[in-house]
Amino acid sequence: MTLTRGMKKLVAALCIAAAAMAVFILFLYPGQEEEIASTERELNMLRQQKKQLERFAAAHAHAADDVRRLEKQEKTADKLLPKQINSAEFLTSLQQWSRKSGIKIEKILPGEEKTYEAYREQQIVVTGKGTYFEWLDFLYLMEQDGRFIDIREVHGKADKTGVFEAAVTVFIFAAAS
Question: What share of the chain has pLDDT > 70, as a percent?
Fold first, then answer.
C-alpha cells in the first residue's frame, strides 16, 4: 500500500505529535506533578495557619477587655504589695482606724525595715486600750485596707471594767527594689 502525499503528511504530523507527547510525559510532566504537590503542601500549611490565626483571634476577640482586666489586677497587686513601705501612710491609717473603732492608741513603735530577696517588711507594734469589740473592729478595719499585712501577735489583759489593754504586732510589706 502506497501512501498518498496527504496521508504522509498526516502520518508525519501524528509522529511529531506522538514525539511531542512523549517528551512532555517523560520530561515536563513529572516536574509539574512535583511542583503541584509542593504547592498543595504549601496551601495546606497556609490553611492550617489561617485556622490557628482564626482560633487565636476568636480567643482574643476582646483584647481591650483583657488589657483593662490586667491593668485592674496590676493596680490591685500594687495596692497589696506597694513599691515602697510607706510606713507614714500606714501610721496615719492606724490613727483613722483607731478613731473609727474607738481604740485609744497609747504607743506606736515602728521597727526597722528589713529587706529580703523578693520583698521588704517592717514591724509596727501598736499599744492601746479599748473593749474587746472595739479591738475586733480595729483589726477588721486594718485587714480591710487592701494592703497585705501580717498580724503576728496580739497580747494583752483586760481589767475589771472590760477594758482590754493590748499590744498588736503587725508587719507591713513592700516589693523588693
Answer: 97
How far is residue 50's CA from residue 164's CA, in Å, rounded to a whole number?
Answer: 70
For residue 1 the three cell numbers come to 500500500
CB 120 within 8 A of CB 106: no
Q: Which of 35, 54, 36, 57 is nearest to 46 (CA)?
A: 54
Instruction: Return the closest-CA partner of residue 129 out of 162, 100, 160.
Output: 162
Q: Angle at which helices 132-143 and 87-101 pack, to 10 degrees?
A: 140
Q: What pTM did the predictor assign?
A: 0.60
How does 23-41 read in b/e, with b if 16+ C-beta sit within 10 Å? Answer: eeeeeeeeeeeeeeeeeee
Backbone angles phi, psi at 81, to 5 degrees: -135, 85
Burial class (CB within 10 angstroms; exposed 0-12, middle 13-18, buried 19+) of 135: buried
Q: What angle do CA 81, 87, 93 make, to 5 degrees?
A: 90
- For 88-112, the pLDDT digits (tens) are 999 999 999 999 999 999 999 999 9
Count of beta carbons in the 10 Å neighbourhood of residue 139: 18
Element (H, E) at 3: none
